[in-house]
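User: Earlier you gave me the apo prediction for this protein. Now I'd like the version with flavin-adenine dinucleotide bound, so I can compare the two side by side. Same sequence as before, with the ligand SMILES added.
Assistant: Got it. Here's the input I'm using:
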Amino acid sequence: MKKTIHIIGSGFSSLAASCYLAKAGYKVTIFEKNQTIGGRARQLKKSGFTFDIGPTWYWMPDVFERFFGDFDKHPSEYYNLDKLNPAYSVYFGKNDAITIENSLEKICQTFEKEEPGSSKQLMEFIGGAKSNYDIAIKDLVYNPGVSPLELVTPKTVMKVNQFLSTIKRDVRKKFKNNRLAQILEFPVLFLGAKPSDTPSFYNFMNYADFGLGTYHPKKGMYQVILAMETLAKELGVSIKSDANVESILVENGTANGLIVNGKKEKCDLVLSGADYHHTETLLDKKHRQYSERYWDKKIFAPSSLLFYVGFDKKLQNVDHHTLFFDVDFDVHAEAIYDHPAWPEKPLFYASFPSITDDSCAPKGKEAGIFLIPLAPGLEDTQELRETYFEKIINRFEDLTQQEVKKNIIFKESFCVNDFIKDYNSYKGNAYGMANTLLQTAFLRPKLKSKKVKNLYFTGQLTVPGPGVPPSLISGKLTAELIQKVL
Ligand SMILES: Cc1cc2nc3c(=O)[nH]c(=O)nc-3n(C[C@H](O)[C@H](O)[C@H](O)COP(=O)(O)OP(=O)(O)OC[C@H]3O[C@@H](n4cnc5c(N)ncnc54)[C@H](O)[C@@H]3O)c2cc1C
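And here is the structure of the complex with flavin-adenine dinucleotide:
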């Protein structure tokens, strides 16, 4: 008889784990509380517009290829990828933006125009970042975070100083131009912490950005979820939506089932891809590994205020991905990490997928996604959301020199309360737990429960960390651990 595994949640990490486990011969069932699968990467469709609710940046294509390759497949069998050109642009003031194109050579020319001599520095910097990428993404992140020794290799020993310095310090040493420095500090924001708190070894994100480039799956990131769903079903995984897990059953110290919508579902092993903190609340207190104090002391990645907006015209002077860094980054970062509060002058990010992908909006119209990073746990009211929409849309009009407010057909918002309600997210975090030096690898919450046998975890709060590629890797890591015991 096949051993049965029940998986909580249907985000990237759960779907990835389900594929590996089904391939290994287990009977796998996914239970997802929401009506649609995909977790934070769900999709919103409205009036002919299509929006990715969560992730919009497809970085590190090699990780996706490695995932599908493990099943003798290739992403192109499921979705079409476009390498975006430009990759993105960054506004620093009115009519004043730097555009990042799709090759290192062109990016060097842009740097040179901004600060003569800086392209040589950039090539050197990206060379180091590539070497770190090769060590980190091809090797280190595929470790399960069980032992500190996983981080000690002949190659990392040579780079130990890069774990002691920070991205900010390294970038600022090499680049005196504030705008270029800000662009180089941007990629590590995906890891959830301030550049001044992120070890400089993580500059491999700069190689992901400038070296590998920014991609867009035609019809949006949700195509990747659909691809994984198809693969999982091909492998025999059963996926149940509208299936809220109310508790994890433990008998004699071993997990052996779930209560789903009031009904007992017995199994041999439980794997949770739901937020780690929430998963532990599904257990009796004595079976939880981490206290409320533990979670409270951790540095969480930001939450976000998001708007999904349908415009009745095409917009000007923006790219598929556009960042608005026209205000002080450090002041906004303080409001996220040091003194949690709504930022007075927020930085924001906007995405207009319909600029490069006709399927995202009706002809002649534009789909816009606006995102303001926020501290998790902030008060979230309709009034605050409206106030902040006004703030950024007025600035948007001014910076990009066009009127857009009167062209809004509809707008939907998503913020702290929705992250909690829809995903059981701890304090409404959007991107899980930050990757700082003290929250890396074996220092993160564990894939395997220390207290309950046959209970495992995956996802952005455990190893390797936040983001879609790490979530795919997390699913693989936990599946490998499970195969060792079941
Ligand atoms: C706004 C936003 C923008 C982002 N942008 C990017 C980006 O551009 N690029 C990138 O790489 N990453 C990005 N990320 C991060 C990325 O989306 C996440 O790291 C990744 O999707 C997390 O996947 P996961 O499997 O860990 O968890 P989740 O996607 O959160 O999945 C967990 C699932 O568990 C379900 N669940 C919870 N509790 C229960 C329960 N009791 N019973 C049943 N089911 C339950 C939830 O509904 C959810 O479906 C972004 C995230 C957000 C929110």
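For your comparison, keep in mind: Residues 106-208 form one domain.
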